[in-house]
Amino acid sequence: MLDHIGLSVTDYAKSKTFYDAVMPTIGAACCMVVTAEETGGTYEGAGYGLQGKPSFWIGTGGHTRGSMHVAFVAESRAAVDAFYAAAMAAGATDNGPPGIRAHYHPNYYGAFVLDPDGHNVEAVCHKPA
């Protein structure tokens, strides 16, 4: 249903470093960067995605009002674990370590962290162990 989503961040360089470290754990990468020169203003952004298609963007513009929740699909529970470990090493705040969340469904294996702007970012695998 969604083509892409974007979050404004308070410190673009810090957030880009964070997401550059975390996204490869779920098979995603920074596949597009736009500069202020290209956008005709002050906006800079980085798009992350699979197979060269950016679906998740971060960019300048200050903090998004309120916090957002973004959940990324992980192909395995090991990828969820790697996502959590990379996020914590990159300065995230724990918001729920890897584990089963049976109240969603029996195979819901997720991990939650707060990114540099306090957004609740999750990796989730829906497959059985």
From TrEMBL:
Pfam families in the cross-refs: Glyoxalase
VOC domain sequence ranges: 1-126
Residue runs in coiled coils: none
Transmembrane segments: none
Gene3D superfamilies in the record: 2,3-Dihydroxybiphenyl 1,2-Dioxygenase, domain 1 (3.10.180.10)
Alphabetical list of InterPro entries matching this protein: Glyas_Bleomycin-R_OHBP_Dase, Glyas_Fos-R_dOase_dom, VOC_core
Name of protein: VOC family protein
Native source species: Rhizobium glycinendophyticum
Taxonomic placement: Bacteria, Pseudomonadati, Pseudomonadota, Alphaproteobacteria, Hyphomicrobiales
